[in-house]
Specification:
Number of strands: 12
Strand order of the largest sheet: 2-1-5-4-3
Distance between the termini: 39 Å
Largest sheet: 5 strands, antiparallel
Strand content: 15-25%
Radius of gyration: 28 Å
Helix content: 40-55%
Length: 355
Amino acid sequence: MLGDRMRRGRPDEGRTAAVLAAVQEIDDDLRDGLTGRGAASAARRLRRLLRAGTVVLADLDARPVAVAGQGPDPAELAALLAGVYEHAGPVHRPPWAAVPLIVAGELSGALAARDAAEAELAPAAALVARSLDHAALRRARARITQAELRTLRAQISPHFLHNALAVIGARIRTDPDRARTLLNDFADYLRYSFSTQGDYATVADELQAVQTYLELQRARFDDRMELTVRMAPEILPVAIPFLVIQPIVENAVRHGLEPKPGPGSISVSGFGEGPMCVIEVEDDGVGMDPEVAGAILAGTAGAAGGRGGVGLANVDQRLRTVYGPEFGLVIETAPGGGTKVVIRVPRFMRGVTTR
């Protein structure tokens, strides 16, 4: 096994810690895949871990993508890798040995080493393959999240554009100053909603977009909508997925307050709960049956009474994709009793950052 030579006799704790740290660092180095910018660093760490003279990471074209140590003879390396790829198994040609990198059941490259213990090479290749598999999953998750965000923008924009422009147009003659302010709010909202700054934003940025959105909706409701926003300062810099809060607020307006006669209210609040960031959006609108709420999150709301909520399903799925299956939305509601939607996510999570 990897590190057997270090374990002969009694290994010292310092060496064990160093091996464990190296395993984590190799995984970090290969975050961008075999051809990413961290491949050279991964090769150097593997060389130290294996105590080898040279370590080579190669792609499927038998090209060395990273070399640590004295460069191999190109013809010798090509022959070694050809044997690995032909049989999809280890090849030993002292002082060299090479093993395939099998990622998700597919041949993806090779790890070759000179003057390394052959028994340690296969576990090292398994370590590299797992890191490459993690990298592929991260890239796939990022693509899914981006696709869901594009879908959400397409779903929420037409309805909002129509209503916002209608409100502004109605105020141009009767209250031109308010119309000018609303137009500026509208421009700010669009600038943020269609921003390409990244997959994440701070709670403060999301809150600013929500307040702009709600001001436009208040004008549409002739100021009959009461707004309450309370956010604890410690969560304002927390990074969360882009466009998470606004779709929930829009759902509260469209499906909670619009069908309700008379005035209505919406509150948006946030606070820290230990390592968690909790954000709640609550309205005193018409509410709904809890079974309908479950259908909305499952994406089957049409079969459960026709109420909208595509945006909620999208947000719920993106939260689960980013943080894990236990971090989706929680909906508390009852017919005639309003609706509360709760977001609870880690305040700090690796990879979730606006930088």
